[in-house]
């Protein structure tokens, strides 16, 4: 019985990172999150989009599939299967131009498509198909909190990403962290952040 309870409590996270450099603060935070998740007794898979060579361009094959004139590309189906196998989706990325990098945005453009992430009927009603998925967002910022607040950039990111993407598909954003330089100054920051993410998400 104890083993059965433990198996039921075990969670799997797909941790998606979008950064091209082999050495970066984004990678340090991502590595720490994966390790902390595993240390808590759960499973974690790292999707390093740059290292894996994921093509973020919504190309002719994607457009044909969108118009039901062709099948989804194999690499898109593979990413959807990865998400289908996960309880949690954790996105870790630097902030480029007050949003996510093109690599990550392109991953969402190509993967979170109609027929899988959502459906729309003839009357325009949206069927949100990712209600089981829990999402955590970890953005590595280069500007301070005051800049984000003064210009409304933080609110814009929430509306665009949390509401416009994940709520549209029914996925629950259970944690969203914008990590500004003051939070990242200490060498222990990646581990502290990782522990915080796991504490906020792994028990849900």
Topology:
Layout lengths: L1 H8 L2 E6 L7 H15 L3 E6 H4 L7 H7 L7 H11 L3 E7 L7 H10 L6 E3 L5 E3 L5 E7 L4 H7 L1 H17 L2 E8 L1 H4 L4 H13 L3
Parallel strand pairs: 1-2, 1-3, 3-6, 6-7
Antiparallel strand pairs: 4-5
Helix and strand succession? HEHEHHHEHEEEHHEHH
Give the helix tally.
Answer: 10
The fraction of residues in strands falls at 15-25%
Radius of gyration: 17 Å
- Overall 3D shape: globular
Low-confidence stretches: 1-8
Q: Look at the structure and give the mean pLDDT.
A: 92
Distance between the termini: 21 Å
Classify the helix fraction into a percent range: 40-55%
Q: Which structural category fits the helices and strands?
A: alpha/beta
User: Strand sequence of the main sheet, in spatial order?
Assistant: 2-1-3-6-7
* Annotation, overall tally of beta strands: 7
The largest sheet, given as strand count, sense and whether it forms a barrel, is: 5 strands, parallel
Describe this structure in words.
The protein is α/β, with parallel strands linked by helices. It is built from ten helices and seven strands. Helices cover 47% and strands 20% of the residues. Helix 2 links the parallel strand 1 (12-17) and strand 2. Helix 2 crosses helix 10 (189-201). The longest helix has 17 residues, at 153-169. It is globular, with a radius of gyration of 17 Å. Mean pLDDT is 92; it is low at 1-8.
Provide a concise account of the structure shown.
The chain contains ten helices and seven strands. It is α/β, with parallel strands linked by helices.
Features:
about 200 residues, alpha/beta, two-stranded antiparallel ribbon, 10 helices, 7 strands, globular, disordered N terminus
């Amino acid at each position: 019985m104890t083993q059965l309870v433990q198996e039921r409590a075990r969670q799997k996270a797909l941790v998606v990172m979008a950064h091209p450099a082999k050495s970066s603060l984004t990678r340090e935070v991502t590595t720490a999150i994966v390790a902390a998740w595993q240390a808590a007794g759960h499973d974690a898979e790292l999707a390093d989009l740059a290292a894996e060579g994921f093509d973020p361009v919504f190309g002719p094959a994607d457009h044909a599939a969108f118009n039901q004139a062709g099948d989804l590309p194999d690499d898109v189906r593979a990413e959807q299967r990865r998400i289908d196998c996960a309880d949690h989706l954790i996105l870790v990325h630097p902030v480029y131009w007050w949003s996510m990098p093109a690599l990550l945005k392109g991953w969402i453009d190509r993967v979170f498509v109609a027929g899988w992430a959502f459906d729309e009927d003839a009357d325009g009603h949206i069927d949100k198909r990712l209600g089981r998925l829990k999402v955590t967002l970890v953005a590595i910022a280069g500007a301070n909190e005051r800049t984000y607040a003064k210009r409304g950039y933080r609110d814009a990111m929430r509306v665009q990403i949390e509401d416009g993407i994940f709520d549209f598909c029914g996925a629950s954003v259970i944690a969203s962290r914008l990590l500004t330089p003051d939070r990242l100054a200490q060498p222990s920051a990646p581990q502290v952040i990782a522990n915080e993410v796991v504490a906020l998400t792994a028990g849900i």
